[in-house]
Amino acid sequence: MSEPRQDDDRSLLLTRAKIETKVAQLAAAIDRDYAGRSPVVVGILKGAFMFLADLVRRMETPIKSVEFIRVSSYGTSTASSAQPIMLVDLSPKTVEGRDVIVIEDIVDTGLSTQVAMEHLAKLNPASLVLCSLLDKPSRRRVPVTAKYVGFTLPDKFVVGYGLDVGELDRQLPDIYTIDG
Ligand code: IMP
Ligand code: MG
Predict the structure, then answer these.
(1) Ligand 1 center–CA 1 separation, angstroms
(2) How many CA atoms lie within 13 A of 13 on its CB side?
């Protein structure tokens, strides 16, 4: 068994209380914008699982279905891989003609989010928007814009609340920056 990661290089950035307040605000904004509609929510695995779970339970909008896709990104390092590919896909029927809200944990370079958005756009949704808890705009290499953004961050690597470093730290209820 591998040793737990040392946690002395973590600094608390966003408390669970702050995240909870923001998630409620995002859910309220989505409810206002989707009144009378029933969108499909597509989470991008793995990082978005915790945010998605909290967001949908705050939403009053009836959700048509909850779907997931997975795009390869960083492997186990903190350096972005050049060419993200689709690893887990959804049935095209669930998206076609539907209002689709894509849920991301973070938009960093934008490379993997762009792959996901372009893939979903080809399936002819009625509308397609992105909701990301976190955004690091200074890192962007391709133009990806989220309609709903929780927190805009500087160029720091963050963990917790679904975000990992080498698969560790996803379970933390708060968000931390880590050194290195
Ligand atoms: P992008 O393609 O560079 O925009 O980012 C792809 C994915 O890398 C994100 O969806 C996250 O899962 C992961 N990622 C980017 N920045 C961070 C970070 O600061 N901490 C943990 N994961 C990150
Ligand atoms: Mg992700």
Answers:
(1) 26
(2) 20
Active site (annotated) includes residue 99: no
* Averaged pLDDT, 55-72: 96
| In the predicted structure, residue 72 carries a pLDDT above the cut 90 | no
Instruction: Output the CA 36–ligand 1 centroid distance in Å.
Output: 33
- The answer, yes or no, to whether any atom of ligand 1 lies below 6 A from the CB of 111, is yes
Enter the pTM of the model. 0.92
Question: 116 CB under 6 A from ligand 1?
Answer: no
16-178 topology per CATH: Rossmann fold (3.40.50)
Alpha helices (H) along 34-162: 49-58, 111-121
Q: Answer yes or no: is the C-beta of 109 below 6 A from any ligand 1 atom.
A: yes
Cα–Cα distance measured from residue 156 to residue 180, given in angstroms and rounded to the nearest whole number = 9
Q: Is the CB of 110 under 6 A from ligand 1?
A: yes
| Residue 108 contacts residue 119 (beta carbons within 8 Å) | no
In angstroms, what is the span from residue 149 Cα to ligand 2's centroid? 14
Interhelix angle 16-33/49-58, rounded to 10 degrees, is 60
Share of the chain above pLDDT 70, in %: 90
**What's the rounded Cα separation, in Å, for the pair 172 and 166?**
14
Domain residues of the chain, as ranges? 16-178
